[in-house]
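Figure 3 (text version): structure tokens given as input.
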């Protein structure tokens, strides 16, 4: 069961998200918070797996919550009305797995919750393009910083030429979890397929040359 905490200062948004998520098998809403301050109290108390986090709230906003979590705790999905460049980059840098507009289709939000529960990301096309462009502009020293630790492990396996079945055995992950991670890697790095991912991993020195593409 994926436990979700909804954090948004608009009651209508919270109610809407709760209604959608309560219809989904394997997902339950652990609680709701109207601001970031309450969220920082509720997270250790409720121990959710995923937090749906509004960016713009009075007092303690979404970025402040992410900074306080410091990469630990539950997976975070950012929901916002403002796809501002710096907020996108900063939220991802602070550990948000997905960054979605509040106008995102409900099935996409559910997809993001399920992906976040296994460490994967769901990004809208515009957000993904923005992240890739900022990486190309040198906003980050290393594009690998966009990936979670588990995604780095999966990318290393792709660089070795491993199939999804091989990755499942090597990392002791389920087949759907591996597929989610591969999709997230391609989206975050703006790559077309697993071959491009393998070449990228090799260019980044993720594995020794003699290990690369040995599959």
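Below: residues designed for each position.
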């Amino acid at each position: 069961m994926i436990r979700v905490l909804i954090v948004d200062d608009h009651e209508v948004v919270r109610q809407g998200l709760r209604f959608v998520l309560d219809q989904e098998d394997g997902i339950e809403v652990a609680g709701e918070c109207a601001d970031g301050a309450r969220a920082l109290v509720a997270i250790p108390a409720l121990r959710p797996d995923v937090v749906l986090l509004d960016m713009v709230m009075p007092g303690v906003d979404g970025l402040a919550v992410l900074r306080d979590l410091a990469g630990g705790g539950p997976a975070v999905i950012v929901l916002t009305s403002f796809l501002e460049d710096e907020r996108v980059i900063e939220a991802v840098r602070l550990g948000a797995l997905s960054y979605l507009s509040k106008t995102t289709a409900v099935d996409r939000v559910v997809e993001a919750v399920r992906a976040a529960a296994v460490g994967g990301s769901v990004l809208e096309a515009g957000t993904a393009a923005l992240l890739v462009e900022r990486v190309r502009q040198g906003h980050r020293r290393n594009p690998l910083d966009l990936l979670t630790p588990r995604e780095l492990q999966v990318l290393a396996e792709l660089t070795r030429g491993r199939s999804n079945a091989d990755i499942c055995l090597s990392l002791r992950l389920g087949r759907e979890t591996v597929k989610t991670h591969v999709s997230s890697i391609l989206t975050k790095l703006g790559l077309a397929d697993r071959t491009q991912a393998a070449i990228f991993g090799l260019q980044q020195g993720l594995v020794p040359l003699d290990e690369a593409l040995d599959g």
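The chain has two domains: 2-129, 141-211.
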